[in-house]
Amino acid sequence: MKMLFITMEHPKKKSGNNIFVKNLIVQMRKITKIELIWIVCEKNETKNEIDDCEKKFDIRNFDNAFDLLETIKPDCVLAMNSKIPPVEKAISAASKFKKIPLVHFKVIEKVEETTNNDIKNLSKTTVQNMKRLFIDGKNMLFKKISFILYKHNFLYKTRSKIGINFVNNFLLYINDVSIYFWKKERMYTIADLQLVNNQDWMKYFKNIGFSENKLALTGSPNWDPIYEKINNCNLERIDASRRQIRILIITCPLVEHGYGTYPQRNLFLKNIFNELKSEKIDLEIKIHPSSEMKSSYQEFLEKNNLKIPIFQKEGLWDIIEKYDLVLTYGYGYPQIECAFGGIRTILLKTEWNFPIIPMVNAAINSGYFRICENLKDIIPTIHKLLNEEIEINNEILLERENLSYKFDGKAGERAAIAILDLLKKPQ
Predict the structure, then answer these.
(1) d(CA 396, CA 107)
(2) For the domain bounded by 2-123+152-220+406-424, which CATH number is listed?
(3) Which of 132, 173, 384, 399 is deepest in the core (most CB within 10 A)?
(4) Among the listed ranges 113-122, 160-169, 235-244, which one has the minimum average pLDDT value?
(5) Of the ranges 6-15, 20-29, 85-94, 129-138, which one carries the lowest mean pLDDT score?
(6) Cβ atoms of 358 and 403 closer than 8 Å
(7) Residue 99: left if φ>0, alpha if ψ -120 to 50, beta else—which one?
(8) Domain map of the chain by residue range?
(9) Residue environment code for 351-369, b if the CB has 16+ CB neighbours within 10 A, otherwise e
(10) How far is CA 341 from the centre of its chain?
C-alpha cells in the first residue's frame, strides 16, 4: 500500500507533523505493509531518495498535483488540515478529483490556538511574516520568494487541470489570500477522514460541517513514543547543594518568527549566562529542530568563550532525563512537552509577552513550572524549584486527558485502524 504525505520540512527534522506521521506509520506497519512516500516542500531542494519502504521526492520534480499523483499512484493521501499551504491545497483537491482517499490531521491540541481571529494579532502576524523574508540576506530572500512563486504556480496549474478558467482561478486566489490574512486558521471539510486529537476538536469539526462518519477521535500519535517515559518521570526533591546543577536551556526561534533581531536575541542569551556563571551549573542547549541555525548559536558561544554543547536533531525526551530542570522562553511545543511530562521548568519572561500555552497554566498551578519575571531572580528561582517536593496533581492529569483524548500510548494504533477502515470502503 502506498501512502503519500506532504511535508513542509525534511523527514529527518523532528517537526510535530513529521513525528505524527512517523508514529502513525509504525502502527500501520504492524497491521499491513506500507510504502511511505514523502513529498518534501522546502525552500532548499531535497535530494530524491528511494528504498524498499520509504521514498522522498522534492516537490519541484512535479509540474502540478495531477502530474504528481499520476506518477506516484498513491492508495491514500495524508495532509495537514490547517490554513492549507498551496501545495497541500493542490494535492488535496486533486486527490478528491481522482477519488483517492484523503486523510487530514491536525497536530495542534487546543482549538483556541487556531481559531483566534483578532485584528491586532492579524497585523502582528503579518508584520512578523514579512520580517522573516528579509532576515537571512539577499540570497535567502531570493530563494524564499522563488519558492513561494513556485508553490502558487503549482496550485494554479492544478486548478487549471481541474478545468477552472483564469478568471475563476484568480478569484480563488483572492479568496486564498483573504483566508490567509483574515483567518488565523481555516479548517477544510473536504477530507474523507479527519483524525481528531480530542473532544474539543471533535465538537469544532462537527460545527464547521464534518459529518460524524468522517471523524475519527484518536488522540495524537505524537505522545505515543514518550508515554512510558512520562509515566516514569518523578519529581523528587533534588539536593542541588551536593553537586553541579544540570540545566537544559530550550531556545525559541524568536528572530525566525519575526520577534526582534539576532543582536537582541544574543544579548538576551548573554544576560542569562551572566546570571548563571557564578553557580555550579552544567549547561547545555536544545535549539529548534528546523527553524534555527546551529551555526548561529555556535558563533555566539565562541564569541563569548562559552563551551556549551548544542542539541538540535535530538528529541527532547531522548535527552531530558539527565537534567535537573529546564530554562526556556517564548512560545513553543517543548513547553507543552515539559508541562505534559512533569519536567521542572523555569519560564523566562521576554519583552514580547508571549501567551501562556496549553498545559502550562496547570503546570504553574501544580508548582513544577515557575515564571521568572526578572533575570536577576534566576538563581533563587532555580534553588527554590529544585528543593521543593512536587507532585503531579489532578489538574495536570485532567488537562493531559483533555489534550490527548486518552493518554495511553495507543493514539497511533487508533489512527491506523481508522485509516485502514477507510481504505476498505469503496471509493
Answers:
(1) 20
(2) 3.40.50.2000
(3) 399
(4) 113-122
(5) 129-138
(6) yes
(7) left
(8) 2-123+152-220+406-424, 229-403
(9) eeebeebbbbebbbebbbb
(10) 17
